[in-house]
Structures are given as structure tokens and as C-alpha cells.
# Entry
Amino acid sequence: MKQISSRLGGPISFKKQSVYLIVLFAFFGYLLVITQIFGQSPDYSNYDIFFDSVRSDGLDILAVSRFEPGFSIFSVFLTMLFTTNVIVYGWIVTAAMLLKGWAIKASSSSNQIFAMVAAFYLVRYFPLHELTQLRAACAIALIMVGAIFLWKGKILHGLLIFTSAILFQISAAAIIPVLLLTASKRWQVMLISAVVFISTSLFTSVVTGYLAEYMQILNAYETQGFYDIKPNPFAIQLLIDWGMIIVALIMWNRLTLLMKRIVLVELIGMAIFYGAIEFGVIAHRIRELYSVFWVFFIADGLRLKATKVFSYGFSFVCILFYFYVFFISGNFFQ
# Structure
């Protein structure tokens, strides 16, 4: 009887609890969006204008908007269902958060770890992505889900999901090849990162100039400039991530294979950032996409005794710093 109870009650209860946590995670994001309790994010007005255009143009928006087709079609569908732009925005955020919640839960070995990683995501990334770079939020949500499938050996599923991510933001293409790489040796990770840095330094100008002829968004950046002010290579947020990377390299033999893979992802993100630092938009945007994969590093690190302490330490430092940046400093929300 006890065995039957555990087989029937235990797993079902656990699955239900997981679903509740993911839904709660997404619902919290939805509430923050529709209440705008902290004020409007820097990019909200642009999406508000876009949704108005979608209502008047319908599918014709595909021909006139610089936004990617996947995001545009999704917006057309939602504007047909809801008459208020903030509700449309909220449901797009909900969809992204459900996918990210699933990905975080799939990589977390307990509800406590899920809660910690979810808090880390909500403070560090939610304001920047869901509340600002909405297309990036959708794209990275799909990439996170695709990565879970890829790392479980379901390569075709992963690649198909990756492809759909590009339909929501084209810059997602910059991270997909890296997720296919595996490097178990420390020297391999450092060598690959060095090659990426050198290649980015040499060819960014050529590649952006070529792609600007075919991509409206890059053409606009080429015309208006990729930021007049070069990004600070020693910004605090960079130094925090560098600290974690250095600790991980020192403790390399204690890391799981997944954690080593994430260190490679983060180092390549840094290499692209510094290699393309003269192109501020590209440098910032791509590094932000790469940095989201810290959630998998933390989720894996918290389950092991050897890596738990520095995983918690990194999480708390990020939560404190980004909570100040986004919610206390007054420099982000309008």
C-alpha cells in the first residue's frame, strides 16, 4: 500500500507543485508588467507604438516594421484578442516567462534551487529583457528551452526551437553556434575564447557593413551610429561576472560538464563584447544574451556541495547589485 501511495501520489504531487511554481513565476511577471508599479521601462513606449501600428496594419506590418516576423505575427494575434496594449505586452511576457520557468525548473534538482534561480533571474534579467527588450526576452526564452533539449541529446528538437528563436530576434543567431560547442578542458575553453576575441576584433566591421545591406535594424545602426560612447570595459557588472568566471576556472575540476559548458558560453560572450567594443549596441546586446545562461550554471552549482558556496555567493552579489541598479538608483524606470 505504501509503495502504491508513493507511486501514485508522490510523483503526481511533485509534478503539480512544479507546474504551480512555473505558473507563479510567470504570473508574477505578468503583474509587474500590467501594473507598471516601478514605472515604464525605457523601451515600453516603442512597443506601445508598435502595437498601435499592428492594430491598423494587421499582417501588413510585416512589410513595414523592422521587428522580426515571428514577434510581429504573435503581436497581430494578441492585438486581435485584447484591446489594451499593456495587456498584449503582458501576455507576451507571460509566454516568455512560462518558457523560462520551464527551463529553470528542468535544470533545478529541487524547489529550493528553483526559487533561488528564479529570484536571480527576476532581479538580474527581468527588467532588462521582459520589461525592455521584449523581442530578446522571447528569443532567449526559446533558446533556453532549445538548449535543454539539445543537452539532453534531442538535437533536432533543439535546432528547430533555436530556429524559431531567430524569428523573434535576429541577434539570437549569434549565440546558437556556441551552444553546440563542448569543451571539457580548461585550455580548450581559453583557446576558443581567444580565437573568438581575435576574430571579432578583426571582422566585426566587415560583417556589420555587409549585413547592413540586408537587415533594416543594422542599417539604422550603421546610419545613426553604434553608440557615441564606447562601453566601459571595467563596468561593475562585467567585473562581477569576471569574478565568477575566474573562480570557476580555478575550481575547474569540481565543475560539472554543464557548468564547464556555461563557462565557455560566458567567456565567448566576453570575447565578443571586448572584440566588438567599438560597436556598443552589438557588444552590449550579445553579451546580455550570453549572460542569461548563468541561470543554468547556478542551478547546477547549487546542487553540489563543492560548488554550492560560490554559486550562492555569486547569486546574492548579483541580486544585491542589480536590485540597486534597476529598482533603487532611479536611473532605469521612467
